[in-house]
Specification:
With 346 residues, the chain is an alpha/beta fold. It has helices at residues 20-28, 48-58, 73-83, 102-110, 151-157, 171-175, 188-194, 223-236, 243-249, 258-267, 272-279, 288-296, 299-312, 319-326, 333-341; strands at residues 7-13, 35-41, 62-66, 88-92, 97-98, 116-124, 131-133, 143-146, 167-170, 201-213.
C-alpha cells in the first residue's frame, strides 16, 4: 500500500487454524486501499501460519507478523496496534466474522473523528447456525458521547467491551496511553481506554456488524477466576469513576452472588476446587456457607434446577445462558429439552 490506510483491522491470534480462515475471508472481501489487515500470531504451533499465508499471498493489504514466543493476549494485541499503519485500529477477534458492509459502515462513522467507535455484535452458536442473541449491546439507535470524564460512556459500554472485537480506537490515542500496567488482565483495551483520563469522544453503532462465534472462548476453563475476580478487580481499580458507574459495569465482589454461583456450578465453571483456591481463605461473610454449599452441590442437580426454572419462567434468561447450560458436561435431559424448545440446540 503506497499510503497510510485509514483503518487497520488488527487480529491477535493463537492456535486458531480451525476458525481463522473464515474470519479472514469475511474481512478480506471488504478490504480497500484505505483498509489493511494485520494478523499478529503469538507463535501458534498449529497450522495458523499456513492458513494466514494464503491470504497474505493473495492480497498485499494483508500483513502477517509471527512472534517467536507467545506474550499473552494483552501484549500481542498491543503489538498488533504498534505494527499497524492506520489512523484507526479495529481490535478484531480471531474466530468471529464481519457482516457484509461492516467495514464501509465503520469508515463512514470514522469521518466524525472520534477517539473510540464501539461496534455492536450479534451472537451465534459454534456452528454459526443458530442465533443466540440478536444484539449484545442493547441499543435501539446509534449513540454519541462527548462528556468530560467518560462516566456515562463507561457505564453504557464498559461491560459490552469485554468483547474486544467491538473496539475501534484512534491509534495515536492508544499509543499515548500506558498499556504495560494492564498486561495480564486479559482486558488491556479496557485499561488503555478507561484509565484516567478516560476516553470521552465516542460513537456506538447500534446495528450488529460482528458475528460472535459463541462457545469457543479459549479461557472457558478459567471463567470463574476471570469474571469473579480479574474483571471486577480491573473495573474497581478505576477510582476516577464513581461507585455507581463501576457498579453499572460489574459488582465489586460478584462471587457473593449465590444465584450466579449456582449458574456457574450448573455449567461446570465453579467447583470445590474453585472454592478452595479462591474463596476459602477470604474473610468470613454471610454468603460463605452458601458458597461452600453450592460448591458441594452436584453439577447435574444444579443444572436440573435451572432447567426447572427456565421451564417455569420462559420469559427469563438469555440464549447464551441456555446454550451454556445445555452444552455443559452437567447438562440434564430437561435442560436440553428446554434449549431445543427455544431453537437453541438440534
Amino acid at each position: 500500500m503506497s499510503s497510510a490506510p485509514i483503518l487497520s483491522i488488527c487480529i491477535s491470534t493463537f492456535n486458531r487454524a480451525r476458525y481463522i480462515g473464515e474470519t479472514l475471508a469475511s474481512i478480506a472481501s471488504q478490504l480497500s486501499d484505505s483498509v489493511e489487515l494485520v494478523v499478529l500470531d503469538g507463535a501458534s504451533p498449529d497450522d495458523t501460519q499456513a492458513v494466514v499465508s494464503r491470504f497474505v499471498a493473495a492480497d498485499e493489504r494483508v500483513r502477517y507478523v509471527r512472534e517467536a514466543t507467545n506474550s499473552g493476549v494483552d501484549q500481542d494485541y498491543d503489538k498488533a496496534v504498534v505494527h499497524a499503519r492506520g489512523k484507526y485500529c479495529w481490535l478484531m477477534s480471531d474466530d468471529d466474522l464481519l457482516v457484509p458492509g461492516a467495514v464501509s459502515r465503520v469508515l463512514r462513522e470514522l469521518e466524525s473523528e472520534v477517539d473510540l467507535l464501539v461496534v455492536n455484535a450479534k451472537v451465534m452458536d459454534l456452528t454459526l447456525e443458530r442465533l443466540l442473541r440478536p444484539k449484545l449491546l442493547q441499543l435501539d439507535s446509534d449513540q454519541n458521547w462527548d462528556e468530560r470524564g467518560g462516566e456515562k460512556l463507561f457505564s453504557a459500554v464498559g461491560n459490552y467491551l469485554t468483547f474486544i472485537g467491538g473496539v475501534v480506537v484512534r491509534r495515536s490515542f492508544w499509543l499515548s496511553r500506558p498499556r504495560d500496567p494492564y498486561y495480564g488482565t486479559l482486558f488491556v483495551h479496557i485499561g488503555a481506554l478507561f484509565q484516567a483520563p478516560a476516553v470521552e469522544r465516542a460513537i456506538a453503532i447500534a446495528d450488529p456488524l460482528v458475528v460472535i462465534r459463541y462457545g469457543n472462548a479459549m479461557w472457558s476453563t478459567r471463567s470463574f477466576e476471570i469474571w469473579m475476580f480479574r474483571w471486577p478487580r480491573l473495573v474497581w481499580s478505576f477510582d476516577h469513576f464513581s461507585s455507581a458507574t463501576r457498579l453499572a459495569v460489574t459488582e465489586h465482589k460478584p462471587f457473593r452472588q449465590l444465584k450466579r454461583l449456582l449458574f456457574l456450578r450448573a455449567v461446570g465453571s465453579y467447583s470445590m476446587e474453585s472454592y478452595r483456591q479462591h474463596l476459602a481463605s477470604l474473610p468470613f461473610h454471610i454468603t460463605k456457607l452458601g458458597q461452600l454449599g453450592i460448591a458441594r452441590t452436584p453439577g447435574k442437580l444444579a443444572n436440573l434446577l435451572y432447567g426447572v426454572y427456565f421451564l417455569l419462567r420462559p420469559d427469563r434468561g438469555f440464549g447464551t445462558d441456555l446454550y451454556d447450560l445445555a452444552h455443559s458436561g452437567h447438562a440434564s435431559s430437561l435442560m436440553r429439552q428446554v434449549a431445543r424448545s427455544r431453537g437453541l440446540t438440534a
